[in-house]
User: Which sequence fits this backbone?
């Protein structure tokens, strides 16, 4: 794909998000995963870590419907007033807060983490920060997943990350690595879908 084609595709995803009232284009990544792997079902409880500005929470809220619930957490939470009744938004810093904060809303059938660190431009540092966030997210997933639940998270790829992915995979029946179409060119991010939580073995 040429740079011009890539730019056109990026603009397309951003415009489509604005038109459909999603605050971020990242919603199309989740939509792509959902179309391929059927992530959500009516009535489920979903935990969305690093939810701001709120596209994934909005999408998941629609997908699980009024009988389901989405708890979206972020260190810089979006204004909660724009969300439907089944989407609850709270402030939380995953690096300092523990999963007890969400225990009253769980267990969760689906745990999402699109968390990303503030990038420094230095690849190794950003990768280490991303890995740190993912390790915290795994702690939350282990504490709050329903049996058989799913855990989808974003990570910046790195050699250290491979060992971590192996560890995560040991808690689930199945693991798939994903690179969505809406990922910006040059991005180091991949998504990892872990299905069928079986607890600590
Ligand atoms: C790419 S954005 C998420 C976009 C979101 N999925 C959406 O669709 O609107 C990454 C988010 O991770 C959050 N984040 C980064 N570090 C965090 C931390 N320590 N605790 C909680 N959230 C964090 C950021 O504040 C940011 O809002």
Assistant:
């Amino acid at each position: 794909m040429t740079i011009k084609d890539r730019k056109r595709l990026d603009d397309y995803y951003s415009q489509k998000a604005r038109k459909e009232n999603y605050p971020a284009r990242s919603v199309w990544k989740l939509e792509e995963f959902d179309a391929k792997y059927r992530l959500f079902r009516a009535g489920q409880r979903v935990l969305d870590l690093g939810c701001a500005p709120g596209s994934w929470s909005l999408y998941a809220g629609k997908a699980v419907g009024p009988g389901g619930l989405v708890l979206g957490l972020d260190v810089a939470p979006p204004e909660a007033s724009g969300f439907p009744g089944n989407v609850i938004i709270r402030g939380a810093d995953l690096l300092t807060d523990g999963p007890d904060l969400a225990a009253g809303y769980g267990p969760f059938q689906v745990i999402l983490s699109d968390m990303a660190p503030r990038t420094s431009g230095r690849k190794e540092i950003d990768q280490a920060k991303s890995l740190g966030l993912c390790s915290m997210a795994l702690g939350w997933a282990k504490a709050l997943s329903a049996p058989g639940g799913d855990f989808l998270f974003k990570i910046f790829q790195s050699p250290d990350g491979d060992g971590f992915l192996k560890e995560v995979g040991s808690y689930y029946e199945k693991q798939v690595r994903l690179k969505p179409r809406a990922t910006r060119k040059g991005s180091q991010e991949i998504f990892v879908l872990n299905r069928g939580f079986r607890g600590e073995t």
